[in-house]
Amino acid sequence: MKKRKIIIDTDPGIDDAFALLTAFNYQGFDLLGVTVVAGNTGLDSALNNALGLVKLAEIDCQVYPGAHSSLKNLQKGAEANPYSSNTHGEGGLGGVVLEVDRRHLSNTSAADFIIETVKDNPGQIELITLGPLTNLALAIQKDPVTMRKVKKIWSMGGGVQRGNRTVVAEFNYWADPEAVDLVYSLGEEVEINMIGLDVTAQTSFTINELFFLKKEGGKIGRLLSQMAEQYTEVYWDRFRITGCIIHDLVAVMIAIDPTICSESDRYQNVNLRIETAGLSRGQTLVDLYGHRDLKDYPKNATVYMGIDHKKYKQRFIEVLFNDLSDLYQKYLL
User: Fold this and answer.
1) Which of 46, 236, 280, 293 fits 275 for a cystine, CB–CB 3.0-4.6 Å?
2) Catalytic residue flag (residue 101)
3) Domains of the chain
4) Model pTM greater than 0.85?
């Protein structure tokens, strides 16, 4: 199998932890680096979490520090945004503290690393983004010509019919809509896949499945289950749902195996815009059906709206816990 050249941009994050460990374990990826942005937690915590996950996975991978705040705030010279620990818990991983090896921390900035890597591998680099898109936007501002040579972007963010940070806005895109606007300006030349709340909402993990990871998944499974305890508390308190949605894992799994979504689940060559002001700040406006009044707008996105949730979970178990696949299918599918 020819390995795909991958950079993951992330803000770890409980769901990022699930996603990163899965991507680290997938043999079809040639992971070139992990770039980090503030989002689910502040930049320092996000960097420590990324470094801890790299050490836990025992992989040789550098971590690159990125933006501590949104594009707009950086342009103003503002300090880092304050971040709430309510959803992801203390430190960003549900109170789990991982051992860190700072030898994996690079002095090169995230934006510079992305630019240099794309320049050295034109038309070959796929970016998987699991947080606010600030690092990508900074790279575009610095070298738009090189960034048009990215092969694909798989972006967890946005939503066509729902929000979670506001009534209409998903958190990652709400956190930096100006960056989103800049990234999708590449969409006529670079394939950009939006994997938003419409898809992730269909993939909730049950308490039984999280218990399975705890009992059968070894050290990794126990840690992920422990992290997810914070999530399940939040989902019950806010939504009266038992279980939780691991949003960022969905983006990684679709990037690994797009066949977990059918042709009818994805809308190709559609127009996507984002609101950057007012009550609807962070809302993605997606023309799924080619509205006649928007026919001259750029076709800048592929938007995912559905998924085979059983196949998604089965493939996740296969990738991260290969020897548990039969057990999972027998007792939980």
Assistant:
1) 280
2) no
3) 4-204+244-312 (3.90.245.10)
4) yes
